[in-house]
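ENTRY TYPE: paired fold submission
RECORD: A
CONTENT: sequence, then structure tokens
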Amino acid sequence: EYTPFVRIENAGGHVYNAPVVAFDKTAAQIRACNGKPNYDLVHDRVAKICPEGNGGGTVTIKLTPIFSFAKPSLYMSMEASDPMVAALDQATLATAIGDLPVGRDDSVFSAIERLFVMANGPTGKLNPQRQGLNSALMDNLPPLNLVGGLPTVALDYSPAWDLNLGFWTAEAIRKGYRSRVIDEFQLLSLVVGGHVTGPGGKPFGSTGIVVNCPIVARLL
């Protein structure tokens, strides 16, 4: 099964993150140097692809904003182990990455970072507090998720993310607590306080879904 994680066995056994953006097509078939690529032939996150030149060609990838430690950042959404998440993220379905052990973020030898996704955050395109899947679907804007670590901030950062799905409780919404969450410990405090739970009121935690989302830039 396809996975973007590649081990180079004759060069130290190092693992590289190597997502495929096009496969088994000629340069002429996928060329879209000025944009408007054929998404039947290339990854859905490709904005432009120019196979020749610049040392072998260039690809421009659409980025998505995210928060970590209250710092806005940008990442590439490349693969997901779940078909619904892959469709929502415009990512490639790669069920094999779901074999990575989850629920062990920050533990010794963990290959996973936690991704925190709010399902029912505030909505409204002009709402400065908007966040979550409902907003992404209703407002047609990025969900503004948060992740547990970033390069240069967390030494245990990984681009393989363990999706944790959170729901604001009806009581938290009634009391006006629902707002944009931009820090892992801010969210976990809300979980401890009973204001955010897992689906259907279940304990908050891993969904078992893994996504491959390399961070590209930290903006603060």
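RECORD: B
CONTENT: sequence, then structure tokens
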Amino acid sequence: NQEKMSKSLGNFFLVREILAKFPADVVRFFLLETHYRSPLDFDDQKLQESKKALERIKNTRRLLQDKIDFLKSVNAGSEYLPEEEFAQKVEQCREEFIKAMDDDFNTSLALAAVFELCRLSNGFANQADLLQKTGALAQLERALKLLDETVIEVLGIPIHRDEAADEQQEAALVTGLIELLIELRQEARAKKDWGTADGIRNRLKELGIIIEDTPHGVRWKRVEQ
């Protein structure tokens, strides 16, 4: 909060206290956003902003990987056209990143080049006529390779897909949606709207979710279909 940390002011904290609130990759990203010669202003809001910024980079990588996998599945051509405008801009991002890192390890400026790469990649990968573009697969692979080289290999931030974490997030989302539907069913039952209540129960049953009304409340379980 723009104050120098000191024991006398009681405004200091330990690394383990930060890591209890934020993942290590977010903290590392936060540190890289400021030039190492500049003072750091630690607060939770700035770390939250860093978390969102890092997620943008991770989302771009997921998008690129998904598009690459799709193009490979439909046997899209992989020839590379060096004169392609997108390829030229990707190369400019590479040059800007290297230039920034050579400028006294200017990581904040290097990250600006990374975000420009993300912006360009998102726009290219989301084009409706991507399948009709000659060399689209190679272009996306080139962008993904540069993103991995700059963020993972040079800056040391793991942005590749964590399948285990993805599965956990998906499971948590499914559980949350099921519990939301059960709450809506309970509200319908309280209003004696039996049609809606039975409809929710039957639809969940079709999806392999059994609802049990017990004296201690509602329980649900998955069944093999």
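NOTES ON RECORD B: The first helix runs from residue 15 to 19. The chain has two domains: 16-154, 163-222.
STATUS: closed
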